[in-house]
Each structure stands twice: as C-alpha cells, then as structure tokens.
Here is the input.
Amino acid sequence: MKSTESTLVHSEASAKVMHETKASAAGKKKGLSRKAKDNLAGYLFISPWIIGFIGLTLGPLLFSLAASFTDYNITSKMNFVGFENFKRMFTMDDLFRTSLYNTLYYVVFSVPLTTAGAILLGVLLNQKVKGMKVFRTIYYLPAVLSGVAVYFLWMQLLSPSTGLVNTMLGWFGIDGPAWLFDPEWTKPALLLMKMWSVGGGMLLYLASLQGVSPQMYEAADIEGASAWQKFFHITLPMISPIIFFDVITSTIGSFQIFQEAYVMTENGSGGPGNSLLFYNLHMWNNAFEVFNMGYASAMAWLLFIIVMILTVVNMKLGKRWVHYEGGDGK
Amino acid sequence: MSAVTEPKFYETKKFKENVKHTFVTLLLIAGSTLILIPLWWMISTSLKSPAEIAQYPPTLFPKEFNFSNYIEAWQTAPFTRWALNTLLIASLGTIGSVLVNSLVAYGFAKIRFEGRNTLFVIVLSTMLIPGFVTMVPQYILFSKLGWVNTYLPLIVPAFLGSAFFIFLLRQFMMGIPNELIEAAILDGAGHLQIWWHIMLPLTKPALVTVAIFSFNGAWNDLLGPLLYINDESMYTLQIGLQTFKGTVQTQWHYLMAMSVTVLLPVVLLFFFFQRYFIEGSNIASGTKG
Here is the structure.
C-alpha cells in the first residue's frame, strides 16, 4: 500500500482517488466495489482526452456553429444575422466559388491518383527482389519530408526555365509548362508534388498485402489464373479494408489542402488567377486577414458538412465493395 | 506427347521468374531515381554559386562546392534562435504526447468502465473532423486566454491527447494479456503503477513510434506557429524559413541550403528509427494487434 501511495502522489487527481478510496474503506471496510473503482480509474485515465475533446473539439464546434449565424469579428459583440453568411457565400462571394472549385478539383484528382499509386507501389515493393529493404526506405523517404522546405524545393524544381522538371522534359523534346506561373498548370503542379510522396500511403498497403495468405495464390495458380485475375480477384478484395480506410482519410486530408498553397503563392494570395485559392486559404484570409470570424465560421461548418456527407457516402458505398475476412465487420 | 518434350528455356518457371524479377527491379530503380533526383537537386543547388544556378541548361553537379552558402544563409537570419525554439516546442510536445496518450490508451484498453465503448467511438470519430473546422474557434479561445504570442497553444494541446495516437497505442496494448494486469491487481498494485511499471516498458516500440511521429509533426508544423506566434524572436524554423524567403528573395542557393538544414534532423530521425515508422503504420492498419 505504501508504494501505491508514493506513485499516486504524483497526480493530485489520483491522490484524491486514494483519499476517497481510503475514506470509503473506513466506512465499508472493503472499500469501493471493484466496479466503482474501475469506473473512477477509467475516467481519470482518459480525463486528459475528455478535457481536450470538450475544450478543443466539441466546445469550438458548437461555438463556431453559433458564430456562423453572426457577424462576429473578435472585437465586436456578436450580432445575429441569420443565414446571411451562407447566403453571401453562394450569391456575393465569387472567390468562395473559385475556392470550392479549386478544392474539389484537387480532391477529385488527388484521391484516386494517390490511392492507385500507393497500391501499385505496395504491390511492387511486396515482390521478392534483392535489395528490397533499400527500395522501401527510398520510396517512403519523401513521406517524412514535409513542411516549408519541401515546398521551396518544388518551387525550384518547377521553375519554368531553370527547374529540373522542365529540363528533364526537355530531354524528351517536351516543352514544359510554366507550372506555378500558369493558372492552367498550378494544380497539376501540386498533384505532381503530392505524387512524389505517395510512398507514405504505400506502407499501409504493404502491411496488408503481407497479410494475404500465400495459399490463396497457390490455389489460384493451380486453377490457372492469370496475374491480372489474381490481382483483381484475390489481392484487391483482400486489401479492400485498407483501400476503404485510405480513401476516407485521404478525402478528408485533401479537403484540407492549405500549406502548399500558402507557401507556394505569395503569402496566401492564391496564385495566378486565384488558381491556388483553396477553400481553407479563403477561410484563413477571411478569419485572420480581415477578422471576419462569423463568415469564416460559416465556411468552416459548410466544410464540415461537406466532409461528413462524403464520409457517410464513402461508408455506405464501402459496404458494397469492402471485403471483411471472417465477416465480423471489425 | 507434350509430357515428353522438354519445355523450351523461355517456358520454364525459373526463366519466367527471372524475367519478372529483372523487370520489377528495373521498375523499382527507375522509381527510386525519380524520388531521389529532387533531393539530390536540392543539395546540389544549395552548393552552387548564384551564377551557376542562373545558367541554362542547368548543371546536375555543382562545378564547385560552396559550403559557405550554408554559413552565410544561417547568419542572414536568427536561425540558431529559431532552431532552439523549435527544439523546445517539439520536445515538450513529444513528452506530453507520449505520456498522456499512453495514459488515455491504457484507460481504454485495460480498465473496464461504463461508457467506455461509446467514448472510444467518439475518439475514433474525432479523427474524421477536419482540423480546419475547429481552427477559428480555437484561435478565439486561445486569444481570450491571452495565449497568443506564447508557446502554450503549440504545446498544451499535445498534453490533451490525440485520437490517432490513442488509437494506435490502444491497439498495441490490447495485445498485452489481461492476466498480467489481473495478477498485479491481486498483488495490490493500482492502475497508475501498472501503467508505469508494466505497460510502459511493454509498449516501448509503440511509444517510440508515437514519440517520432509527434516530434516530426511538431518540427514540420507551419500552421500553429503561423497563427499564434508574432515576434520574430519566437519563430520556429518553419515560419522562420517562410519569412526567410522574403528576405533573400529568389537566392535559391540560400533557400536550398536552409531547406536541407531544416530537413536534415527529420531525415536522420527516419534513418535511425526506420522500423518504428513502419511499425506505426502496421499497428494503425490493424494488421498487428
């Protein structure tokens, strides 16, 4: 009991538990029932998350829901304006529509491209070839590199005249575009950069591919199945839970594209012809450049609703194509 | 008839395997080249003279290695201070993240309390909320608390748990037999003791994974410092590097030199702790645990 006390003293909250336990022990001799103790201990253990959830997620969500119906700008009082903010998005704010279009463009291309790319890499890196460990390291490396430095690197690589990308295209006689300076090519430029780090998603698939039992392939070999048939009828269904997980998370992730656009355009200006003005960049500018918090909150909630709807749709569709081994759905 | 004739050499299984291996290897080498060339380009540019960078066509190898680019760039802005700031934030955040997330994960994995499953579903569903949705109200909260232009908004959230890490550690802890905990309870140990003396040592690989991911995340974080830090002396490397771009304009040798420098710790961390990165992904995908 003595050592229990000394450990528990570290945390005031836990010390209180001890106190209560002791107090009731005096009363009932055997102390709290095991069940009551576990309840108390359980909630104390997860209390940091509860505080974080209420303070940093639930509270802010509810606050911004309320703020989205006001003209709040941090210093002023909140004036209720009804659906004015939402109306403004769709009727008056042209940049809002541009930002929504840019974001959807990015999501529609980046999710299938990165998913397919990661699966392909996973399959390639699951072959039994010499030096595979080195290959896996190389392919994963770009995924750990992120932040401003990587964006600078790509700005240099994509430089129209002296950049490496156009130089390499030139070797094949292709006259490369102006990338980040041409509104038509800014988003493909970001997709190219995204594809460079596709190895990050590969790891998930690799782990899952290694879990597919070799007997299934052997059985298919005996039946005379071709490599394509094996891929489509064994490999894809077996890794479909990971594809499902990947599609959902990367859809949510792609909707949040911000940093690339912020760094690679002049302090979030949105690039040539606003072609890199993504949803979050527009929201950021409204919130922190002109302190239009009410409007930004409304934008945040609309984003939340869009993402939630897409997630639900993904989950519903997932039931049709995701194959769960054992069928317990977990 | 067909059973008697020897298959031609190109029809043998071995030959087919060899062709496949060669093909895969070539493909992998081509891909690796595409991945490594940009990194080589970054290093190469960081060593070139401005005149050589402006040259057309560009050179793949620098004619001369100007290591002085690194020193000059470092001295152009308060990079030493920014590096120390970043190190402080990332270290504190990592400590908080490891301790708190494992504590919470232990609660979800090994203590039976009412409402546990419901709450865990809530933990998982918070992973589906885009961070940008809560960004504005969080900023308002922190500014009302007077935390703007302090490191608190960058560090305190790390001490309040992260859904992904809780999930990852819980998955790992589920694999540790309950008998071990029951036995310790019979011996009179409390959950806090069990967590500290039994669970932490046993989950070390997963904790290292969380530590690396947290450190990496804090090191690369641009959004947080951009929102909350105003004083130049309090900048982190990410936001420092971003303003550095404005200072040196398009002096790519300096920009690339500092980009290499900022990425170097992350690359070293990755090479030293590679298996933990892979482990982390495996646990998260549910193939282990």
